[in-house]
Amino acid sequence: MAIRKVLRTKAVLEATGWSRSTLYAKIAANKFPRWTKLDPDGQTSVWWSDEVELWQSGKWAPAVEVAA
User: Fold this and answer.
1) Does residue 6 contact residue 38 with C-beta atoms inside 8 Å?
2) Distance of alpha carbon 13 from its chain centroid, rounded?
C-alpha cells in the first residue's frame, strides 16, 4: 500500500503561486481540491499531494455530491 503524502498551506501556495485568499476563493468555487483536517481537533489542514498534482496536470475534477 502506498503512503499518501501531504502538503501544508505554505507548500500549496508555493506550488500555485497564489495568495492565501485566492487559494480559498478557488476552493470555494470548487476549482481546487479541498483541504483535509489532519487531526481530530481540526487544527491542522493539509492537502493530498496526489490531488494537487492532478490539478496541476489538468486532470483533477471535483467530486460530485449526490443529493439525499
Assistant:
1) yes
2) 11
